[in-house]
Amino acid sequence: MTEVIIQPEQLSAPDFGLTKFLDPLHIPPVIGPHLWWRQEEITVRALRTRVRLHSQLPETEVWAYEGEFPGPTIEVRSGKQLRVAWTNEVQGTMPLVAVQGPIAQAPGDVPGGYRDAQGNLLPGFSLIDGVADLPPWHVVHLHGAMTGGGNDGWAHNAVLPGFAQLAEYPNGQQSTTMWYHDHAMAVTRFNVHAGLAGMYLIRDAEEDALDLPHGKHEIPLILCDRNLDTDATTGRLSGRLLFKIAVAPGGAAIPFTGPFNLVNGTIWPHLDVERRWYRFRVLNAANSRFYQLNLIDEAGAKHNDAVRIIGTDGGLLPAPAELPAAGLTLAPAERADVLIDFSRFAGERLRLTDTGVTGPTEPDLMEFRVENSPRHNLFYPPAKLSVSYFRLQHGTTVPDDHDHVFVALVPPGTAGEAHPQMWELRELTAAPSVPAQGILQVKDPSTGVVRTFEKVASLFDDTTTFFIDHGRWAVWNLIHFGGPTHPVHIHMTQLQLLTRKQFPLTQGNVAGFDVTVGGTTAPLEVPPDGRPIEKYEEGWKDTFQVRAGEWVTVAGLFEGATGEFMYHCHILDHEDEGMMRPFVVHPPEVAKFHLHPGGAGHGGH
């Protein structure tokens, strides 16, 4: 092992003295039910272990499923039920150091930098109280799964060491890329950061018939970022995970981002590839970083025309889609199933790069080293992929009789609250005087009629207000009044993006929204269409990017499972800071007997 010593002049260098593309890409092992024994149950252990994120670094202590970071890929067949005993065998407390400091002094793209040579905290910095004492309290959510509420990883149902979470997954879905990760109440950001995440694949006959690249030519790419501590005296990278965040003057914590980008748990790896098509299952498993992915050569020229998107969160697209000219932006928790044609790049080195990165963080994620020898490549992406796919439309595939759910995303500082918030809304029949806290007025895009809403819940443990009948369609209206882009994840079902409209902004917030009061000053005009919905965005999904000023509608059929589920922002810092709420799916026959507090009714419609 070569120890890395950071010199002062290297603190702003994007590689921090580590050799890029030195280590081969790690491929997580594949596990699943042993069908030849008729075994439909597996045990997955959470363990404390040590891994090496780069061969020039000391080992890093992590929490990891089966001792693998990321965890092993679980592979199943559609329609084949799997029971998993998620067993907590972790010893000790949280394996990272968590610090916070002022924005000017605590950039997330620099390792260490919070202590002096004697190990004392620098002025303005403090340890995040309580993180060092956190026990391994875990609950697993299979992200994207359609399973009952008791198996979904309810945030309060975490278990301590010596106990297991027993979950049952019907896997009654089409071929798709899902992932599993910790979802414990208030500490998800720390538990996932410590290493608790892995990929889960469902296979089906429709996928088999396409004869897509498989075996060694189908590879998961799990993206995330991390920061590492340094020895205060020597400046050496210690390998210890560092969760360092900045705090704005108003008290809002800036979500974590780190200077080291990892692919499958390795910093800047390389992959030797043949001159042929490959299939990559790409997952953004970062706490908050958005990746804008492009394929470039050593001269910096883009080759996105060699890439085809064939699937999104919920499964295969109807036909391959081109990569956007500016690259594919993946928010935290989003997945992309992509094909890359390396046949025309004999002997070249290509890089998967995050062109949206800012600051000194190294934009390169990994390197592909293409063989120089000739190879006969018989595969070409089929013109049609999923024959079972259908596009959702109001009044046809989405029946006129459906529920509407309204959720407001409001900026930091709203009504004096430091962090961004997520408000559940209930429509009022009489309009109060405005502006008033929690009162929002908008004109309906389809009718132009003014609709008045009031905030009825915000924190997770507020009264449950959204109730949806099992077997019923629901359209979720996500209205973003200002602040950062939020990737909103809705549990239990797969949905499609229907519309995306855009209100005008003033200083980053919707014009007509009074941040100080926390309400609209007058009815907001009907917003015009916003960003066009790209072909690759028409697929089935469970996580949707909602930018400031956007009114996004998504629709899904809530069938196949019942219980209490969650929806939330998948920026894990935001989720833990309050941007998460429950909803209930129950049989309509039972709903007749269920007394709802406040008379919210089904889905707030």
Short description:
With 605 residues, the protein is mostly beta strands. The chain has four helices and 41 strands. It folds into three domains: 15-204, Immunoglobulin-like (Sandwich), CATH 2.60.40; 223-241 and 248-370, Cupredoxins -  blue copper proteins (Immunoglobulin-like), CATH 2.60.40; 403-599, Cupredoxins -  blue copper proteins (Immunoglobulin-like, Sandwich).
Structure description:
With 605 residues, this protein is mainly beta. It has 3 domains: 190 residues, Cupredoxins -  blue copper proteins (Immunoglobulin-like, Sandwich), CATH 2.60.40; 142 residues, Cupredoxins -  blue copper proteins (Immunoglobulin-like, Sandwich), CATH 2.60.40.420; 197 residues, Immunoglobulin-like, CATH 2.60.40. The chain contains 4 helices and 41 strands. The strands form 9 sheets. Strands 16-15-12-18-23-20-21 form a 7-stranded mixed β-sheet, with no helix packed on it. The chain has a 7-stranded mixed β-sheet with strand order 28-29-27-26-31-39-33, with no helix packed on it. Strand 34 and strand 35 form a beta hairpin. The radius of gyration is 24 Å and the shape is globular. The N terminus and C terminus are likely disordered.
